[in-house]
């Protein structure tokens, strides 16, 4: 098997990693790298003593936003096998680091995609648009086959100009409430560096959510340019250029005669890498229509007027208390994702499909371990069957009228569908700030009308869930733990995680 040059390894060592690497070329075992701790646990159960496993994303970290370290690179270059979940679960930086540093000939296995051959069930990622203004995101569409696009490719969408009576700012609110600015017309646009400071990067076939803020009412026009970077060192391929028109606090019908006005629902500014177009694409719930930006006006109505929140994190929007018009992001977290919910393991039967794919992948890498891998997998599949029964029994024991899952992270659709516990969560219009009195009132009514007994929060995400915690306590509703993407010191294995979740749902809702 081809290994990375010694010079690279020496350079990484000199760069100084805090901890020694887990993987090595002096160990007789199969060296396996995974993206998450959940996948690493599954591999250990199948591989047993014949494998050495390490994960890129550590416990308590957010797989959607984790930035790989030199230690991660050092592990990847020694890997004999690599497993990711993908379906855009992991941050693109994790996937690009993994794919770029694997030794020649080492296959990277995407479990969520490959497990469908083992009867894993996938479900669409359903997004509940509960806003009374348009929800405007960004999307990359098309497979780019004629360009040789891979999952490590990038679509660069750059803002090159804005006209209007005030500043226009578009930003993401990341997992823990930190803003990440996509464009800010107040500091200008710099063509000499490729508009680097006003560029959003998206993986192929992905979309993300945005907040759009305007400091003054009036008509704004935003010019966007799209390019395709097939690899990190290839020259970007021009895709197209387009202008969007926003009517902020003014009559949208007076801006462009006979134009289509977009005022509600979910629409994405979409770069189609196959056709070379930038269009406005509505979701299927709203007809799935493609709108020509030249004949379309995006309405930002007077009711979108909000105050800049207090706190240093949002001073880029203006002084606290200053009024701005804003189309909110609607969904917590950075949330770059595709059309399929990637959290398959919340249905234990899908974890069994992962296990079978892991077994066959390890056999291909180490044929001499076939008997051991098969025996380990059979034992673990039996354990998972018992786990599936346990989870179902614990949830079945919750009275049907009490089965309402309220949580701030949309990682539990598979749990809800597989075991019959509907998600009744709410969407905060702007996850970066404290919800309005109306938002709190709607949440309060949800808890009261459904007689919700408990709300569930992931331990590592409590910091961004203060409003849900406060409203729950005001209404004598318990706040309980549930695990989604990551382990911690209390829960250190997949089986323990699913048992904990089943027990928490049972105890808190019964």
TrEMBL record:
Transcription regulation recorded as keyword: no
Name of the protein: Anchored repeat ABC transporter substrate-binding protein
Highest taxon of source: Bacteria
TM spans (from-to): none
GO molecular function: metal ion binding
Gene Ontology CC terms, in alphabetical order: cell envelope
Source organism of the structure: Actinoplanes auranticolor
Lineage of source species: Bacteria, Bacillati, Actinomycetota, Actinomycetes, Micromonosporales
PANTHER family reported in the protein's UniProt record: HIGH-AFFINITY ZINC UPTAKE SYSTEM PROTEIN ZNUA-RELATED
One GO-annotated biological process of the protein: cell adhesion
Tagged with keyword Glycoprotein: no
UniProt-listed NCBIfam families: anch_rpt_subst, choice_anch_M, P_ac_wall_RPT
Keyword annotations: Signal, Transport
Signal peptide positions (record): 1-24
Family: Belongs to the bacterial solute-binding protein 9 family.
Entry-linked Pfam families: ZnuA
